[in-house]
Amino acid sequence: xNLGDTKYRLSEFWSxxxxxxxxxxxxxxxxxxxxxxxFEPAILPWKEVNSKWRSIDYWQDNSASAxxxxxxxxxxxxxxxxxxxxxxxxxxxxxDGGVKLVTYTFDYHYTADKAPLDVIFHITGHGxxxxxxxxxxxDGTTLDLGQRFEQGLAGQDIRISVDxxxxxxxxxxxxxxxxxxxxxxxxxxxxxxxxxxxxxAREGMAREFKxxxxxxxxxxxxxxxxxxxxxxxxxxxVVTGSVSGILGTDDSKRDLFSGLVAGLxxxxxxxxxxxxxxxxxxxxxxxxxAYFGGTVDSVMQFIYQIVNSIPVLPVLIVISAIFxxxxxxxxxxxxxxxxxxxxxxxxSMALQIKEETYIEAxxxxxxxxxRIIFKHMVPIxxxxxxxxxxxxxxxxxxxxxxxxxxxxxxxxxxxxxQILHDAMQGAAILKGIWWWILPxxxxxxxxxxxxxxxxxxxxxxxxxxxxxR
Amino acid sequence: xxxxxxLKRVLKGIFTYVIIIFIMSVLFNTVNEQTMRSNIxxxxxxxxxxxxxxxxxxxxxxQQQRRDDLIHLYRLDRPFMERILYRTWNTLTFNFGxxxxxxxxxxxxxxxxxxxxxxxxxxxxxxxxxxxxxIIGIVLGLKKAQKPGGSLDRTTSLLTMIVYGMPTFWLAMxxxxxxxxxxxxxxxxxxxxxxxxxxxxxxxxLLWHMTLPLLTLLLxxxxxxxxxxxxxxxxxxxxxxxxxxxxxxxxxxxxxFGHTLRTAxxxxxxxxxxxxxxxxxxxxxxxxxxxxxxxxxxxxxxxxQNDIPxxxxxxxxxxxIYQIGLILLDLTYGFMDPRIKVGGKA
Lengths: 469, 346
Prior knowledge:
Oligomer: heterodimer
CATH superfamily of the largest domain in chain A: MetI-like
Strand content of chain B: under 5%
Helix content of chain A: 40-55%
Largest sheet of chain B: none
Radius of gyration of chain A: 32 Å
Structural class of chain A: alpha+beta
Order of helices and strands of chain A: HHHHEEEEEHHHHEEHHHHHHHHHH
Structural class of chain B: mainly alpha
Number of helices of chain B: 13
Shape of chain B: elongated
């Protein structure tokens, strides 16, 4: 079979395939997901999700179990969305004694009906630096929230959380409006700092939250005592809202959208690799079994029957529980069980092909067995296996997620099954955290659907008897 | 002769089972022995605690003595091959030993008792689900095959493909979230209320607990069945004898249920038995989520608590049931399809 032949058959296949609407939908979703995998770095809101999914520090500024940001459209009281502000206005001023004051001002436009959960300042410092953070409210007041004196920094990240560090000054602020008696009912602890900072200043503000909407200025000032050897860089502010991102966060504050995008490539890899390898093995196995016949056939059929009569999932789970395999090992183990899927059909087809006259002719010409198998049988049978290849992708994905759901998955990567496992562990069903359960499973189902569309369409073309009249 | 065929098939099944168990024994040998050794250590420690008024040297001697005895008893001092064969034999004779943590409802720790308790519960749920699935599947499949390419066929085929890769456990989670915690219609878990009611209420209570798992299994299950039924039936409907039957003026329903379904029976039975078998063995996650106290749930607990003896026993039983199912399938196949009847007169 030469290149022209292949091209012709492909174009013939395509002209048939074009008529299958569901197949085209499947193809479109597959292409789309491949694009997502390719452009993953650009799509991910949290860039280091692949390496830091299980890091606590990386996610610490998010709020836990926050619903997706778009849920605001369905609620009466709008919740603030978690935002990260990077574009601070930088001002530098020289003070007496060679001290330099660096000020970064961030604009935050506040429109929600609830106060943010926290406002967190981040800055990376070198040397000895006193740092002061403050907030400018729309009503003109500016509050100094807290200060730190960091010594001997060498590029560490300084994190100042207003909720913790600004408690004192918020309490001082509220004292201007509330009487001592009224405040006694609310001890310093039970008042949340941000409920004061984003509240309309008035009497009774401790009792009731009435949002003061408008432009806030979030200011961080760093004093460079020794400008030669110290500097600050990469300042940013995270305003932690109670809704977050496209798909919310889980109870470890992780952004679920990032996790799901990162899981896509693994789902595709697991599905495609497992099915491709196992179907190829199955095809070869079937052909060899059919071509050689006799004792070889009997032995191979017996091995096939043994493997085929092992229930996959229980064994897979026991193996994962005991050997804790990496994702590639898991794929290898799945291949060990999956290859049986296509053997029988291929064998029966190969038995027919074997009797064709052109095989006989090839034999008469003195062609070697390997030549007959690879030149005359494999190229005919491989296209037929594409359908079963596509159809076995979903089960590979589901098996992996089942193993992961039990907490036996590869702990170095993010997969959809593992997200579901965390959701089970975090009692997301009981708490009704639907944004944690719905999307991962839906994605698994959509992946399954995609390959089912592809597989069934190919099946229809390759086995014309199933065609609807 | 059918007798010989049956005997051969059963022997082959047993041989296959022995080989599978042997492979498992080799594969999980290390873990098994670790569990045994830690069990021995525990037993020796427990026995030492009971001793009183003994010299430290004597205690040590006693411990060593007991340890050696037990290691000898469990044959951990024998060569590798013998240990494996011994373990294979133990598994084959259902001598799974005692669990490390899990207990049966009466507090026994015999693995066989624990599994014996769980097995019927799994069978009830999955057999019922499979029966309903097959009935709906056959009816729907026939309807689809009657008008291939019609609107019913197209929509149901589309739905079949949509649920094709949908994980059952995920649908279970969603349904639990909706029906149990939002609508509060069904119990969240288990098989009975505590304490279980008596008499007829017992069965109603059981059904009530079973509704949601059944619903989940059905929602995912019958599409595939109907799709396969459609394809098989569609193939048969193109045969000449169907055309002949129609030409003779036999009513369409009789053609469908008499002529077609009779011919379609063998592959349908194969398919349903296989799906029942795989649902029993693949129900680990499913039962775990519904806390349905069957084999799968036992598996889940055993994995989480690292109870190796229960895990191995459960695996052996699951594989065994699978084998029995396959054997029964082959044995009944001859009755279904006279063409492949063994030993019949030509």
